[in-house]
């Protein structure tokens, strides 16, 4: 559960506000969700350094009701992009407010070029971070202490999180909901957004456009992914998947990465972990039975991958997210 009964998310608005990135944050954290029968949810506030309305892209004007003092009470601070694609240095007053919020334990999150604000505050020094691939080289050159990864959707460094451009902000925000409320509720939020319930942060930012279209196998590939999920308890090797797709193993592996931005092994592992999360939340199956049902064969294997992915154990996860919070279907 979030660290407070009503976890306070504060988004920072600014003149030249990135409209899409700001909209993502508001949609996920500000929208009322009566379909979720959880006993807590986020409270949302917008603050700004500027007094009066701030201009957003597209001719929109936003009127924040609070100044930077709102960051003193924030549990999570979100920087939805930054001016001129991060080329404009953030004001010292904003940098100091973010540093103070982080020092007292607030979670600091950036979307796209918002990473430049976190970098200016020194919060990314010595850490792995990402931003839109178009800005990654500039971020690395400007802040050499940051381990910039231009090839991922988002990076979770605990109390500091960064995402790539635009739609990757949705993935990071859903990741935050998943960490705070569990997989079932995160999936319900994704369903309302009509987006994929979970894309792993290490998935590539760039996926080649429609690589299978010319060979007429796009529908076949989608059917294969659905078939794999429905047979997740089985031994699904690359060879077995390639045969199911009627392709050679080598060609299948190449096409799989082009289509999904990851490898068949990593994709299957993520599907199995997602299925395990759901079972841990909604059933009382022993951990070894959960491992069998998701195709990981043993509790030892499940624990290994679970700890790598979520920094916790299946048992601890169940204690935190077992269905005290039911989801209305």
What would you note in describing this structure?
- This protein has 329 residues and is α/β, with parallel strands linked by helices.
- The protein folds into 3 domains: 186 residues, Rossmann fold (3-Layer(aba) Sandwich); 48 residues; 62 residues, Homeodomain-like (Arc Repressor Mutant, subunit A, Orthogonal Bundle), CATH 1.10.10.60.
- It contains 13 helices and 12 strands.
- Strands 3-1-6-7-11-10 form a 6-stranded mixed beta sheet. A two-stranded antiparallel sheet has the order 2-12. The protein has a two-stranded antiparallel sheet with strand order 4-5.
- Strand 4 and strand 5 form a beta hairpin.
- Helix 5 runs antiparallel to helix 6, helix 10 packs across helix 13 and helix 11 crosses helix 12.
- The chain is globular.
- The chain starts with 7 loop residues before the first strand and ends with a strand.
- The C terminus is likely disordered.
């Amino acid at each position: 559960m979030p660290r407070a009964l009503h976890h306070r998310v504060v988004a920072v608005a600014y003149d030249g506000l990135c409209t899409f990135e700001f909209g993502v944050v508001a949609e996920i954290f500000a929208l009322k969700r009566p379909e979720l029968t959880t006993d807590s949810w986020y409270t949302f506030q917008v603050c700004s350094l500027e007094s009066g309305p701030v201009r957003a892209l597209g001719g929109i004007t936003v009127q924040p009701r609070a100044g930077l003092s709102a960051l003193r009470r924030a549990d999570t601070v979100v920087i939805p992009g930054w001016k001129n694609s991060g080329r404009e240095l953030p004001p010292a007053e904003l940098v100091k407010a973010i540093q103070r919020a982080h020092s007292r334990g607030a979670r600091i999150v950036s979307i796209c070029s918002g990473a430049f604000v976190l970098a200016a505050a020194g919060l990314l020094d010595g850490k792995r971070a990402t931003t839109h691939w178009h800005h990654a080289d500039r971020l690395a050159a400007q802040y050499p202490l940051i381990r910039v990864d231009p090839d991922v959707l988002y990076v979770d460094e605990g109390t500091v999180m960064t995402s790539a451009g635009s739609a990757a902000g949705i993935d990071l925000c859903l990741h935050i909901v998943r960490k705070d409320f569990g997989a079932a509720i995160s999936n319900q939020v994704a369903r309302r957004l009509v987006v994929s319930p979970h894309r792993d942060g290490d998935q590539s930012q760039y996926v080649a456009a429609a690589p299978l279209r010319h060979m007429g196998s796009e529908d076949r590939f989608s059917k294969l992914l659905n078939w794999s999920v429905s047979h997740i308890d089985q031994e699904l090797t690359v060879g077995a998947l390639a045969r199911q797709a009627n392709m050679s193993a080598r060609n299948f592996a190449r096409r799989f990465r082009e289509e999904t931005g990851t490898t068949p092994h990593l994709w299957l592992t993520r599907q199995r972990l997602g299925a395990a999360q759901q079972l841990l939340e909604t059933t009382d199956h022993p951990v070894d039975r959960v491992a069998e049902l998701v195709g990981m064969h043993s509790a030892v294997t499940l624990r290994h991958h679970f700890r790598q992915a979520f920094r916790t154990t299946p048992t601890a996860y169940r204690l935190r997210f077992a269905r005290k919070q039911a989801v209305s279907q």
